[in-house]
Task: structure prediction
Amino acid sequence: MTDDRLSLVFSALADPTRRDIVARLAAGDATVNELAEPYDVTVQAVSKHIKVLEDAGLVSRGRDAQRRPCHLEAEVFDLMTKWIERYRREAEDRFRRLDALLEQMGEQPATDTPTKEVAS
Result:
């Protein structure tokens, strides 16, 4: 996945309504009308949200007779997970190195630092 594609995906998921739509599609396919039901916005507004998700590759629309269900494209999440996992591993490696350094510093004898006497 290119960085531009990844930017599209994260940008699409930045909106709470679109994240909710993705969560609902994780349970199964649904039409735009079904997805629009719980929101206090027009079907057209929900359709625009779905278009953003579609452009990012997160959602596809199919055709089932007269019904046009939206479908969650789960493989995009696998690619996102791999990208996130890479940085999680790097962060864990840094924390392990920090832990080792702190442990090593704890084993060294403490040295008293000279204090300045305050003249009164």
User: Anything to note?
Assistant: The mean pLDDT is 87.
